[in-house]
Amino acid sequence: xxxxxxxxxxxxxxxxxxxxxSNLQAFIDQIEGGDLPLQIDLVISNNxxxxxxxxxxxxxxxxxxxxxxxxxxxxxxxxxxxxAIDEHQPDLVxxxxxxxxxxxxxxxxxxxxxxxxxxSLLPKYPxxxxxxxxxxxGDKWHGVSVHFVVPEVDAGPIILQGRLPINxxxxxxxxxxxxxxxxHQLYPLAASWFAEGRLSIExxxxxxxxxxxxxxxxxxxx
Length: 222
Ligand code: GRF
Known about the structure:
Distance between the termini: 34 Å
Number of strands: 10
CATH class of the largest domain: Alpha Beta
Low-confidence stretches: none
Strand order of the largest sheet: 3-2-1-4-5-6-7-10
Helix content: 25-40%
Largest sheet: 8 strands, mixed
Strand content: 15-25%
Oligomer: single chain
Shape: globular
CATH superfamily of the largest domain: Formyl transferase, N-terminal domain
Bound molecules: 5-O-phosphono-beta-D-ribofuranosylamine
Number of helices: 6
Order of helices and strands: EHEHEHEHEHEEHEEE
CATH topology of the largest domain: Rossmann fold
């Protein structure tokens, strides 16, 4: 890691995953490329099989498994998660495909420093199966939202959205693939805005450099 071009980190983060971790990889790549002034101190997965753990190890990032099945209640699991995260006192906690619903207490503990990415143009389609739902509804646009997390699932002030037109030939799979590519650009971008101190929240609305910016809704063609 000595010959990479990373810049001095402006913020330290803990990333929570459950699966492949392609978004985690996008963070790692951008940090190593010098485009994202973030340092990932720890990756936590609730799933020991998550490929993202390997991605973290390859990048030299500390990682650990906290398996939700080993806890009797959601409160107990979230407490263990919170303790592991708080050992690092991160500026930012990033949910990157973390497939557990978090308690209100946990979410409030990280108020305004906990972010998530969701594959729909929120407030449309919170929850699962977003690509099929957009197709079935005959939507012209589908996309992805990066947002601050609040206790209500897939709600919370939106930092950044990316949208793309739904093509006649699109299937749920093709949409998922197209959207995944956008995620890999937009999630690190949102994190860079956070790290640079450019985000604020006013009346549940996220401002970039003190205003609602065109940069917060980006359109992609393919
Ligand atoms: C992404 O599609 C994200 O929108 C959703 O979970 C998925 C995670 O993918 N929250 P990956 O593990 O980063 O590849």
